[in-house]
Design goal:
It comes from Methylocapsa palsarum. The protein has 305 residues and is an alpha/beta fold. The chain has 11 helices and 8 strands. Helix content is 41%, strand content 13%. The C terminus is likely disordered. Bound molecules: iron/sulfur cluster. Iron/sulfur cluster binds next to helix 5, helix 9 and helix 10.
Length: 305
Amino acid sequence: MKKAAQHGAAFFKKLGRFAGEDVSKGNPPENQVAANASPAPDRAIPTIDRHVDAFIAENQTFDAARLERRRATLNASECVSCARRVRAGKDAVPPDPHYVENQRCAFRGQMIEAGLFAPAMRGAYGRRFRYGGARQHNFSNGRLAATPDGLLLGCQRHEFAHLGVDLGRDNAVVITECKSVDDRTRDLPKNTHVVQVQIQLGLVRETSRYKPDVGIIIYLSASFLKVTEIPIRFDPAVFAAAERRARLIMGAASMADLPAEGRLAGGGECQYCPYVATCGACGETRIRDLHSDGPMEPRRVASGN
Ligand code: SF4
């Protein structure tokens, strides 16, 4: 538990360092706060808004090498997104001129995962919790790839009986996947998260010595940090379908050879797509509509965080 607390403390200390302030030394003197809080009347009202984006840009856990790896395979979190859109990302197609990437929701997930989920899991399960936090591992078979938020080793057969799960044997391995959600979200689990965990289970079984039958999606609500745990049992048919989808998307010559699934499904996903102009499925009028309110606020469909 002590180690878990240290990990959490290190994470939040990092937040303080970014602001040029050592949080371990306490709050700044009151006069400093007062001076900073009272801008000259003729100056623009200060806002930390752009600094939030700067902080996110500097602290994104998606480094260049990881992004390059993600381009070579269909990632578990992308499987149910529009095939044409996913392929455009793989080919590094330039986004539409007015498109603005909003990383805040994804970053919220990363903060909750690194600052709360991983330390709490270590506190609860000690060294049985592996491949979590900074030690996450990417499992790939060359077509599909997945990075679970942790593996729980040495599970007893009835350890998760309170979730209605019989693991079938002692010393079993369970995958854990953390998701942050709006407190008002109903109908959990989300289909995209279920598919993601199915692919994680399939890849871990195929590419490692671990043979998990069950994954647990651990939802943490963004406002009250309410925990909801939902078990998912491995279904080989879902994994096989994901394999076929990976071959379809990665085997196409380009995005133009793939169906415009976002449009075919009613266009909901197109509202957050960076490639509306290149895709062309929505037509010129639709592109103008989408861009008429200024920069789009995309969400990461099936985000890994
Ligand atoms: S605009 Fe719609 S159909 Fe076209 S790639 Fe984007 S999500 Fe898919």
